[in-house]
Amino acid sequence: xxxxxxxxxxxxxxxxxxxxxxxxxxxxxxxxxxxxxxxxxxxxxxxxxxxxxxxxxxxxxxxxxxxxxxxxxxxxxxxxxxxxxxxxxxxxxxxxxxxxxxxxxxxxxxxxxxxxxxxxxxxxxxxxxxxxxxxxxxxxxxxxxxxxxxxxxxxxxxxxxxxxxxxxxxxxxxxxxxxxxxxxxxxxxxxxxxxxxxxxxxxxxxxxxxxxxxxxxxxxxxxxxxxxxxx
Length: 231
Fold this sequence. Notes:
Layout lengths: L1 E3 L2 E7 L4 E6 L2 H10 L1 H10 L4 E5 L8 E4 L20 H11 L12 H6 L4 E5 L5 E4 L1 H7 L3 H4 L10 H14 L1 E14 L6 E17 L2 E17 L1
Parallel strand pairs: 3-4
Antiparallel strand pairs: 1-2, 2-3, 2-8, 4-5, 6-7, 6-10, 8-9, 9-10
């Protein structure tokens, strides 16, 4: 998910005080650090993080960091950059109400809490991405009944490379907090009755767990924003 030109949101890993964004190159990272320094500092502050880390593809140079302590330091709120390019502004309006879900505060498989949650929650196998669980909010968002959704593959709703990268991070780190990504949701076209997919931007929490004897990931959607793109 692009925050502003040349800078993609990645995530903050589980229990981390650092959020991560990605620049394509060292030169791009330098430019982002210079141009959007105050924006990144305020983003770190608004997310309750200590810092934003700007990663890039040059292994010989370290990532760049922007500390939340620098938010608005010596800058007017409206004078630092082009606000129209900052997608996180609109996302945070929803995200600030949804983050730090109690479901994740002391992790247990409390299906009563899952079923009553206003956030969509999914469980899928890590090996083949088979959907094993979706709460009522998730099924409503997809527009499908349990028999239509469970047993299918999560690959149908995700970019293959991004999903593989996400699962690699979940497997190695045990989970991800506030992970930003683009994916799809099912919907039935009213005029034809055909199933189609719409592209969405998401911020979610993920954890690795064992469920029904299988190694799985569980995901809780904190923010879902439609992009207007239909497949």
